[in-house]
Design a protein that fits this description.
The structure holds two protein chains of two kinds. By secondary structure, chain A is α/β, with parallel strands linked by helices. Chain A contains 14 helices and 13 strands. In chain A, the strands form three sheets. Chain A has a seven-stranded mixed β-sheet, sandwiched between helices. In chain A, helix 1 packs antiparallel against helix 9, helix 2 packs parallel to helix 9 and helix 3 runs parallel beside helix 4. Chain B contains five helices and six strands; from the N terminus they run αβββααααβββ. In chain B, helix 2 packs across helix 5 and helix 4 packs across helix 5. In chain B, strand 1 and strand 2 form a beta hairpin. The interface between A and B is medium-sized, with 28 and 32 residues.
Amino acid sequence: MTIINLDHISSNPLLPEVKTAMIEAIQMDYANPSSQHKKGEQAADVLESARESVAKLINCAVAKEVVFTSGGTESVNHAIKGVAMANAEKGKHIVTSNIEHSAVIRSIRRLKSLGYKVTSVSVDEYGQVNPQDVADAITDDTILVSIMHSNNVTGTIQPIEEIGKITTEKKTILHVDAVDSVGVVPIDVQALGVNLLSFAANPFYGPTGVGGLYIRRGTRIFPLLDGGVQENNKRGGTENLIGIIGMGVAAELARRNMDSRLLHTFKLKEKLLEELPNYIDEYIVNTHPEFSLPNLLSISIKYIEGESVMLMLDDDNIAVSTRSACATGSLRASHVLLSIGLSHADAQGTLVISLGIDNRQEDIMAFLKSLKKVVTTLRDISPLYKKTSRV
Amino acid sequence: MYNKTVMDHFRNPRNVGVIEDPDGIGEVGNPLCGDMMTIYLKVENECIEDIKFQTFGCGSAIAVSSMLTEIAKGKTIEAAKRITNKDVAKALEGLPKNKLHCSNLGADALQMAIKDYEDRKIGKTRPAPKRVDKHEHSHGDKCYCPYCDIEIQEGATFCDACQSSLEEEH
């Protein structure tokens, strides 16, 4: 059974080169990179070589600015809580946006319960933050600004460079959650002017359970995990060397193949956007027409509910993601979709289609064909569709 | 996520559609979670001769509607009045805990359609559709955290199990 994977935002397959490198790593029985004997030094060399590859991918000034973590969630928790703890005497105000990932929202919510104050800026209809709003929100008490690079629901990319200029000028620490961007679109931490940047290996076809936090030299931050002196004293615990080796190989390939991957997925996305009106009507495009991930399209199909669409597409062996309230554990509409101004009913019909290097044009056509059938079936059942067409 | 019976009713929903000139209509909706359901009744000699539904909602909402109409079809009005959410959920051989509220929607829509039928009989006009705007108990007497499904105290503003704020829920 072949499954057409249009849900790369949820998980990506490992590249063959990554698999090979990880299998070899397992067979090598590497020692602890912190050990001073030969086997330890051999492990440390491999670790540092992976760090170099990852650092190059995001253009760090020095490789040591990369701290390996267990993934995007840890990186985000480290950045936000680590800055808050280390700078509590300077101030207790944090600026963020209304459309952040739950890792950011919940980290900040935790700090709120500990007495930190938070200002959350709103976004436009595509989910873009206005940098001026960020500037206006920063006070003398602000110790951290945390804005995501690209959004996992809409695919919209934020004007981070402009925000970076503001935070640099105001001497505020800027953390960027770039989990869905690093390895997918070019990221240059120096050009962006960020102090901290969270990322993970899986979005660029590396293993899950491994990620990184870019910490610019001189940034005042405490470790999240206190322990040994690993990771330049920034993250205790013996490194996940097998995962990190996989991440290093994936980073190297992502950097080398960035342009061709970008073009490949972007062409498919263009095709999808172009053909969509030939297959379904009455839908809203949530993705920014210009500033968005090349591999993600978010649409809200009116009068039907996303989980039903997802399940029916799954019957046709097509995997997509939905952001309907019914499909979330909380049974609440996605805060991102409500923030861009969708009604609860429209938010219900949201599909996130995310493309990868394994997708072909035939996949797009198969999806559209299946989608047309599913939308017709579900609209026939829907009381909302009939009501609107009766008016 | 869903069992075979639920998936069968979702994939092949029974009694979908509209009855022209129905004897009773029941409309319920929950804008918070987004499901909406309409039930149409055709009644002959105090017996549900035909029943159809339209649903905007997830897999379980559609399966619940379908199963509900199957249970109600052919029943007398008096017998149909006794159909509960539990009956529907049981006939579907269970629903995920956080989807149980969908079965409420089904039974509510049916009871509303029956009420509408009885009102019409005595010449009353149709009541306005019920809209549920606030948190409502959907699992019987107990209250569960919407994030982790652990039983919580009525009125709790914080879930001790998953540390979620529940202020918006209550």
